[in-house]
UniProtKB/TrEMBL annotation:
Pfam families: M20_dimer, Peptidase_M20. InterPro entries: AcOrn-deacetyl, ArgE/DapE_CS, Bact_exopeptidase_dim_dom, Peptidase_M20, Peptidase_M20_dimer, Peptidase_M20A. This is Acetylornithine deacetylase. It comes from the Bacteria. It comes from Methylobacterium radiodurans. PANTHER family: ACETYLORNITHINE DEACETYLASE (PTHR43808), N-ACETYL-L-CITRULLINE DEACETYLASE (PTHR43808:SF31). The gene is argE. The lineage of its organism: Bacteria, Pseudomonadati, Pseudomonadota, Alphaproteobacteria, Hyphomicrobiales. PROSITE patterns: ARGE_DAPE_CPG2_2. Keywords: Amino-acid biosynthesis, Arginine biosynthesis, Cobalt, Cytoplasm, Hydrolase, Metal-binding, Zinc. Belongs to the peptidase M20A family. ArgE subfamily. Residues 169-276 form the Peptidase M20 dimerisation domain.
Length: 382
């Protein structure tokens, strides 16, 4: 099928992260089998989702990986001009959920599988299709473990997040958690007899704010990022029931996004230590039933590859471009590098500025540029 026909089929699968992706995986697997590919399905623990490792060409020599995720973000509450799960073309733009992030890239890889199969590849091209990227890069982890078990280690990985086909050599790492402050309720007229969970949460929020301000003021810098320093913030707070009740519960969700010079996990760990060892201990000293519970939410490493590395230079050559950039959002590329010991860059059609919002789109020209990139990869893999 053509690029657009393949994208049309992919968009029609409502593969939001909260739902199963098995119908989409079955479709992709059927396409891969029709091209004579070797397929390894990696199911989730629940069996409700699966990842795919697809190999075209010889499996016993190192090759290259084209990596994408199958899940998309929800459309609830968004004012779309057309059905988000039906590809709609207007003025050369192809609208639909996931067109930029990142079914456009996946469609190109799938549509070109027959060309890969017919090329007589000397080095394999692998297509990695994961799940639950949008909720913490979860599904790619067992996929990378399967990749390592199959061997040999790939030469490099191209992660097709939307970059307008620019070469991205770095992204920030992220660590996030949800803290629940458990206090003791009482009538607000007797406030000193209670333990105010909201006020303890507020002290934590201020701690994170001061930490983030210090990083912005005095921390390390990387000018290739649009936000050139590590960031931290609290973004979701829920607590209290009524004005005249001292609140006994408050939850706070927070994150750090770190450039390579910093460690997002260490920063988040320090904030959690303050919450549990200082604030929680103070609460428990007043009432042993009170304190702070911690729930990890997201933890993925950043990506950092030398722009002069072989893979980065190859990506520029395949893309026909001579520049590179870094992005503040996260991708699965850092996990291929950290867990798989595989160098990675990020490059794909579409733009992140269009993703996660109503009327998401990719252009025909961007799909064709991506197809040219993959065809050149086929050529160098012969």
């Amino acid at each position: 099928m053509s690029l657009v026909e393949t994208l049309d089929r992919l968009v029609a699968f409502e593969s939001v992260s909260a739902s199963s992706n098995l119908a989409l995986v079955d479709y992709v697997e059927a396409l891969a089998r029709a091209s004579g590919a070797e397929i390894d399905r990696v199911p989730s623990e629940t069996g409700e989702k699966a990842a795919l490792w697809i190999t075209l060409g010889p499996r016993d020599v190192p090759g290259y990986v084209l990596s994408g995720h199958s899940d998309v973000v929800p459309v609830a509450g968004q004012a779309w001009s057309s059905d988000p799960f039906r590809l709609t073309e207007r003025d050369g733009r192809l609208y639909g959920r996931g067109t930029s992030d990142m079914k456009g890239f996946v469609a190109v890889c799938l549509a070109l599988m027959p060309e890969m199969a017919a090329a007589g590849l000397a080095r394999p091209i692998h297509i990695a299709l994961s799940y639950d990227e949008e909720v913490g890069c979860l599904g790619v982890r067992p996929l990378i473990a399967r990749m390592r078990a199959r061997g040999p280690r790939p030469l490099g990985c191209f992660v097709g997040e939307p970059t307008e086909m620019g070469v991205v050599v770095g992204h920030k790492g992220k660590s996030a958690a949800r803290l629940t402050f458990r206090g003791r309720a009482c009538h607000s007229a007797m406030a000193p007899q209670g333990i105010n969970a909201v006020e303890y949460a507020a002290r934590f929020i201020d701690h994170v704010r001061l930490s983030a301000e210090g990083l912005a003021r005095d921390g390390a810098r990387d000018p290739l990022y649009d936000v050139p320093h590590t960031t931290g913030l609290c973004s979701v707070v829920r607590g209290g029931t009524a004005l005249n009740i001292v609140p006994d519960a408050c939850t706070v969700e927070f994150e750090y996004r770190a450039i390579a010079a910093d460690d997002a996990g260490a920063l988040a760990g320090a904030a959690i230590a303050y919450a549990t060892e200082v604030l929680g201990a103070e609460m428990a000293a007043r009432d042993p039933a009170c304190g702070v519970a911690v729930e990890p939410l997201v933890d993925y490493p950043g990506l950092e590859i030398d722009p002069r590395a072989d893979l980065a230079l190859l990506a520029k050559r395949l893309a026909g471009r001579d520049h590179h950039a870094k992005v503040s959002y996260g991708t699965e590329a850092g996990l291929f590098q950290a867990l798989g010991d595989v160098p990675a860059v990020v490059i794909g059609p579409g733009a992140m500025a269009r993703a996660h919002k109503a009327d998401e789109y990719v252009t025909r020209d961007e799909l064709e540029s991506c197809a040219a990139f993959v065809r050149r990869l086929i050529d160098v893999s012969r």
